[in-house]
Design brief:
Blueprint lengths: L6 E6 L7 H13 L3 E5 H4 L9 E2 L1 H7 L2 E6 L1 H11 L6 E5 L14 H9 L3 E6 L2 E6 L5 E7 L2 E6 L6 E7 L2 E8 L1 E5 L7 H4 L11 E7 L9 E4 L4 E5 L7 E5 L3 E5 L4 E6 L4 E6 L4 H9 L6
Parallel strand pairs: 1-2, 1-4, 2-3, 4-5
Antiparallel strand pairs: 6-19, 7-8, 7-18, 9-12, 9-16, 10-11, 10-15, 12-13, 13-14, 15-18, 16-17
Length: 293
């Protein structure tokens, strides 16, 4: 039987042994289809499986046709950042709680994976953000990519931080707040949503700026073009501690005078979905919106 993907790597939730049953079932299914199966090295430490090749993320990127992520959205965020430069598509099996990105249920896994191997699937491309830190001493530090969001926020103190924001070099505002979220459309259903931001269609080429508990209520979320460059200054002389966080997983401390430069990455994340994937259906299910009359 001819498969659309012939070399597939499995990536599981970090440090989680409870996924082993699903992983073993998936391995049997893929081997039954004649697929060459490999496993990410951190996942292999939790899942014992004989004679299965173990690969680093770099090797997965170089050798795999598809990566299947078993876990929650956080696991897929991590995999996306590590594999985006290689163009490897991602498919998510949802063993987490919410699952906007990992949309295949374990109960439907066999049917959906077989359909995908038969070429019956949908693919979408989503943007990421990339972040550089320009230190107050003039040195530049390349920090990380972010699939959901880049957040500049206060760090272990009760006081607000003060920031200045520029879009394409043009001054937007000066703000005292608990922080500022710069989000992709993918991240619009994450931290940005809980902070009062809008939900964007994931296919949009846009970014959202969402203030976190601003001192003045007139500060509102704003949607800007995806090709914009956002520059955030931690105001000189302001004593509160701050940090920048990418996808809630990567953190770096900031001091007064630092500048955070955020722009769209020049590579896209490729997501594989089952046929008839419906983003609005997922929104209704996850956010408990009413069904159609």
């Amino acid at each position: 039987m001819e498969n659309t993907f012939n070399r597939i790597s499995l990536i599981g939730k970090y440090g989680e042994t409870s996924i082993s049953g699903t992983v073993v079932e998936l391995i049997r299914l893929l081997h039954g289809r004649g697929v060459e199966v490999t496993m990410e090295e951190q996942t292999a430490r939790c899942i014992e499986h004989e004679a299965l090749p173990i690969l680093s993320y770099e090797e997965i990127g170089q050798q795999s046709d598809l990566a299947i992520v078993i876990g929650g959205d956080g696991t897929l965020l991590h995999a996306a950042r590590n594999l985006v430069n290689y163009g490897v598509p991602l498919l998510g099996i949802n063993l987490g709680r919410l699952g906007f990105l990992v949309d295949v249920s374990p109960d439907d896994m066999a049917e959906r994976v077989n359909e995908i191997l038969d070429g019956k699937f949908e693919e979408e491309q989503r943007i990421l953000l990339t972040t550089d830190i320009e230190r107050h001493d003039g040195n530049t530090h390349s920090m990380s990519d972010a699939f959901n969001d880049v957040v500049v926020h206060k760090w272990d103190v009760a006081r607000m931080i003060e920031t200045e924001t520029f879009i394409n070099g043009r001054f937007l505002n000066s703000m005292r707040s608990d922080g500022l979220i710069v989000s992709t459309p993918t991240g619009s259903t994450a931290y940005a949503l809980s902070s009062g931001g809008p939900i964007l269609d994931p296919d949009m080429d846009a970014m959202i700026l969402v203030p976190i508990c601003p001192h003045t209520m007139s500060y509102r979320p704003i949607v800007i073009d995806g090709d914009s460059e956002v520059e955030i200054h931690v105001k000189e002389g302001y004593l509160s501690k701050a940090q920048v966080t990418c996808d809630g997983q990567i953190n770096l401390g900031l001091v007064s005078g630092d500048k955070i430069l955020i722009r769209k990455k020049d590579r896209f994340v490729r997501l594989i979905h089952p046929c008839k994937h419906n983003h609005y259906e997922i929104l209704r299910a996850k956010l408990h919106w009413g069904e159609q009359f």
